[in-house]
Specification:
- The protein is of the alpha/beta class.
- The chain has one domain: TIM Barrel, CATH 3.20.20.20.
- Helix content is 41%, strand content 13%.
- The chain has 10 helices and 8 strands.
- An 8-stranded parallel sheet has the order 6-5-4-3-2-1-8-7.
- Helix 9 packs parallel to helix 10.
- It is globular, with a radius of gyration of 17 Å.
- The two termini are 26 Å apart.
Length: 279
């Protein structure tokens, strides 16, 4: 397998969300079959560094998807995209067998919201392939995770969980340079919890791995701004700017053009150079 090498030494990377389903919380992110391939190709034209394909909705209240249905929705899309584009591909899945199929079709990153806990075979798949793994924190499962989540100390709890998950990945044979961590904004967390994690970039970065932040149009932005999901772009850009300035290395977004502009402005602010030739 020819796995892309991600560059974390320059501007942050933009990961575009392509939901190959009918029930992800933001309707414009949804597309199936050839429409999903075209949507991904447009995201690349808009400046995305990574395309994140997912077939199983993980919004609050979502149900678990069977392997057969996930495979039917996802594998032809990855194959179709890879035939037309070499941009890095991430696959949002908790299933090791699906991850293996996706990697065989040219995927580079496994984005596992369970940090390889739901399917212990995931570690072996990633170790053998050399794929990147995104280890995310969540409390509970999508169907019930927003029913009264609670923590002793949200920052220390999430940092400890991700430290342990990364250590387990290394013990399983996954190279440290292939590990990415994600605090799981909105996954079993209140709005106050999410805000605490936005302010915990120093603690998250201290774990020693690139930090991915998925903030795009999420409910905590709605709680702060009072706006519905369709009107949360400005809030998303503001939150993205904050975490980029604090050191996030990847932002996972629905609105690629706005995110690319945000990354460029933050990079220019931090370096004093426009650096457009880095994109």
């Amino acid at each position: 397998m020819n796995i892309h090498t991600l560059n974390f030494s320059g501007p942050a990377l933009v990961m575009a969300i392509i939901n190959c389903n009918d029930d992800s919380f933001y309707a414009p992110s949804r597309a199936k079959g050839e429409a999903a391939v075209e949507k991904a190709l447009q995201a690349v034209k808009d400046g995305a560094d990574i395309i994140d394909f997912g077939a199983e909705s993980t919004r609050p209240g979502a149900e678990y998807l069977s392997l057969e249905e996930e495979q039917e929705r996802l594998i032809p899309v990855i194959s179709g995209f890879r035939r037309r584009c070499s941009t890095a591909v991430s696959v949002d899945t908790r299933k090791a067998s699906l991850a293996r199929m996706a990697l065989e079709q040219g995927a580079d990153i496994i984005n596992d919201i369970s940090s390889m806990e739901d399917d212990p075979a995931m570690a072996e798949v990633c170790a053998q392939s050399g794929a990147y793994i995104v280890l995310m924190h969540k409390q509970g499962v999508p169907r019930t995770m927003q029913q009264a989540p609670s923590y002793k100390d949200i920052k220390s709890d999430v940092v400890k969980y991700l430290q342990d998950a990364a250590s387990a990945a290394v013990r399983a044979g996954i190279a440290a340079e292939r590990i990415i961590i994600d605090p799981g904004i909105g996954f079993g967390k209140t709005a106050a919890d999410n805000l605490s994690l936005l302010g915990a970039m120093a603690e998250l970065s201290s774990i020693g791995y690139p930090v991915l932040m998925g903030l795009s149009r999420k409910s905590f932005i709605g709680e702060i701004t009072g706006r519905p999901v369709e009107q949360r772009l400005a809030g998303t850009v503001s939150a993205g700017t904050a975490v980029l300035l604090a050191g996030a290395k990847i932002i996972r977004v629905h609105d690629v053009s706005a995110a690319v502009d945000t990354v460029r402005i933050v990079h220019a602010f931090r370096t004093g150079q426009p650096a457009l030739n880095t994109f």
